[in-house]
Fold this protein.
Amino acid sequence: SQQGEEDPQALSIQEGENATMNCSYKTSINNLQWYRQNSGRGLVHLILIRSNEREKHSGRLRVTLDTSKKSSSLLITASRAADTASYFCATQGGTSGSRLTFGEGTQLTVNP
Amino acid sequence: DAGVIQSPRHEVTEMGQEVTLRCKPISGHNSLFWYRQTMMRGLELLIYFNNNVPIDDSGMPEDRFSAKMPNASFSTLKIQPSEPRDSAVYFCASRGTGANYGYTFGSGTRLTVV
């Protein structure tokens, strides 16, 4: 079963706008990760946030984690057409050990 | 670093045939994972290895699926006999030591069973 649930399932924005994707999970975790998948390609690791962290930045990416609400958000600022992809959150740890459990993903379309 | 290498990229086979998917993890990574991705079920973990030892194969759908990791640089996922419902993209991923590292995924093998 999928650990994470993502919201929205699909998001369409204009280039230059910010994109926010949300992820909720059910069990305790050691960390939460975000991945990007371009059509027909493998997943690319974007950022990892540990359970004792609340916010993390990497370039135009900002990730927040609220363990009390079992939720995370990924913000992409000043989006570009090249950001068009599916974005997945994945949780690791807690009762699941090393395994990484993925959500269903958000399909982001950035229109030029 | 060439990343995680999977072969073949595409495989089309007839129902009942044996299919073998291959993966070469990143050198030095001690964990290897096989995932399957379909539209209906998303990304599912099939099996993972730590230091070449299978740790959790609870995601393997049935006895038709088997995976091996004979050494630190090679793993196979075999389906015998294959069925149309096995059609999916199969990904291999590896990870280095330590609890807080991301995975590196291969480009996947798109399997079509007709």
Notes: The longest strand of chain B covers residues 42-50. Chain B touches chain A at residues 4, 31, 33, 35, 42-43, 45, 48, 50, 55-56, 91, 93, 95, 99-108 (CB under 8 Å). The mean pLDDT of chain B is 93.
